[in-house]
Amino acid sequence: MSAVAGKAKEFEKLDVQVLSCSTDSRFVHKIWQEQELSKMVDGGFPFPMLSDAGGKIGSAYGIYDEAAGVDVRGRFIIDPDGIIQAIEVLTPPVGRKVTESIRQLQAFQHVRKTKGAEVCPAGWEPGKPVLKVGPELVGTVWKVWKPDE
Amino acid sequence: MADDEKVEGCVASAAGPIDPQAEEEPEQARQTRKEPKMNVTVGKEAPDFEASAFVNGGFKNIKLSDYRGKWVFLCFYPGDFTFV
Known about the structure:
Largest sheet of chain B: 3 strands, antiparallel
Number of strands of chain B: 4
Oligomer: heterodimer
Structural class of chain A: alpha+beta
Strand order of the largest sheet of chain A: 1-2
Strand content of chain A: 15-25%
Radius of gyration of chain B: 16 Å
CATH architecture of the domain at 2-93 in chain A: 3-Layer(aba) Sandwich
Number of strands of chain A: 8
Shape of chain A: elongated
Number of helices of chain A: 6
CATH topology of the domain at 2-93 in chain A: Glutaredoxin
Radius of gyration of chain A: 18 Å
Number of domains of chain B: 1
Low-confidence stretches of chain B: 1-6
Distance between the termini of chain A: 32 Å
Distance between the termini of chain B: 30 Å
Strand order of the largest sheet of chain B: 1-2-3
Mean pLDDT of chain A: 95
Order of helices and strands of chain B: HEHEEE
Helix content of chain A: 25-40%
Strand content of chain B: 25-35%
Helix content of chain B: 10-25%
Low-confidence stretches of chain A: none
């Protein structure tokens, strides 16, 4: 979570609301923030830290590990209409790459801004070419986009 | 913050997943109903929920639907004080 906190400004710039959630109580969240996160990142984790005691929310999202009693690393990008646009789920030993999540957010925001008229090919980042959807693009993607560029 | 504590008590529970169809359900039926499992997928609505939360040094309950109109980055993780 400290990695997410470290990118707080970028999330805010994109007007994205970050919510973290684990099966810990809000009291444990408080102490974690005070004793550890705030020492890892200036200001600590500046977003709501949700408690999913009992794992019911994690169960609803399909990422609750009943045997371990914890929510695994499930990450959901939810658009302004409440629709899930992206899911990433990792088992506990490996952490996420936050810059990749930010890239995906930027791509989904771009697609939404253009109402789907422009889509983002593999590896897209802001400033790179987008694809303009239409009949003339069929079979001609090679003219406007190459995987290595 | 201290005031919030007094009002809420130590083990105040939040609603958890919110199922709009469950609103009219009698309490007994709700208790015996199975929890929804893995009904999330891309392109579908994110299940709404209410959770107690630690926010800005205080405690409050948060609903996912409070953020309708905004992009939301919802991150589950195995636990505070874990190493990764």
